[in-house]
Amino acid sequence: MARPTCFKSAKYSQAMIIYDSLLKSGHRSSELYFNLAYSYSKMGETGKSILNLERALRYDPANNRAQLLLVNENLKIKEKIAIIPQFFIFKFFDDISRFTGSWSWLFIIFIIFIGGLVFISGYLLKRDFASKRNSLIVLPVLFILLVLSVPAFIISYDREVNLLEVVVLDENITLFEVPEVSGKKEAQIYEGNKLRILNDFSGWYLVRLSNGKEGWIIKKGVLEI
């Protein structure tokens, strides 16, 4: 996607108007969200920059520019919520799943499956390419790739279909124990932090923070990725 002249000449406020109009007209792409995020970053709006970077990565998990800028934007958060470390095997498969989208993983699994069938058929039919020696090398490799690809597909698909998250856009919002403004205040959450939605109730979200804490927030001041 070509960048408008005002983007190239660092007129980011004008560029944001153009990008917003493209989104309103139905255009969606990783590059469009990245360009919008970059413009917000230059304008000092960290929350909106992070929101659009997360959206860019939903469309293309392998977008390196979005990944790098997201790291930089997260450093600007006034008080970043700590992340509970994942068990190493879960983190391993989660990292692998982010290399590409669920449809690409499904295609990879299909290719591996077909490759396995071809080699097994060739071995049974005594074809040269599927000699016993070659089969002892190729089939274990295909099996390992399948073991890696299937969990990656499942995690990627679940993230794309079931994962609902919001980014805080206001300077800060309040986490409540119950969905009532008179309820006990659990914490202040600052602009740019990402929260997972667990439930939706009459103007409120039940959310889980990256440190595992749960509570209710008013919908105003956050926007869904």
Give your account of this protein's structure.
With 225 residues, this protein is an alpha+beta fold. It has 3 domains: 11-74, Tetratricopeptide repeat domain (Serine Threonine Protein Phosphatase 5, Tetratricopeptide repeat, Alpha Horseshoe); 88-161; 165-224, Roll (SH3 type barrels). 53% of the residues lie in helices and 16% in strands. It is built from 8 helices and 7 strands, in the order H-H-H-H-H-H-H-H-E-E-E-E-E-E-E. The protein has helices spanning 5-8, 12-24, 30-42, 46-59, 64-74, 88-97, 102-124, 132-162, and strands at 165-168, 172-176, 185-190, 194-201, 204-208, 214-218, 222-224. Strands 6-5-4-1-7 form a 5-stranded antiparallel β-sheet. Strands 2-3 form a two-stranded antiparallel ribbon. A hairpin with a 5-residue loop joins strand 5 and strand 6 (214-218). The longest helix has 31 residues, at 132-162. The radius of gyration is 22 Å and the shape is elongated. It starts with a helix and ends with a strand. The mean pLDDT is 89.
Largest sheet geometry: 5 strands, antiparallel
Tell the overall outline. elongated
Over all CA atoms, what is the radius of gyration?
22 Å
Computed structural class: alpha+beta
Count of domains: 3
**What portion of the residues fall into strands of 2 or more residues?**
15-25%
Count of helical stretches = 8
The helix-strand sequence is HHHHHHHHEEEEEEE
Topology summary:
Layout (H helix, E strand, L loop, with lengths): L4 H4 L3 H13 L5 H13 L3 H14 L4 H11 L13 H10 L4 H23 L7 H31 L2 E4 L3 E5 L8 E6 L3 E8 L2 E5 L5 E5 L3 E3 L1
Antiparallel strand pairs: 1-4, 1-7, 2-3, 4-5, 5-6
Helix pairs in contact: 2-3, 3-4, 4-5, 6-8, 7-8
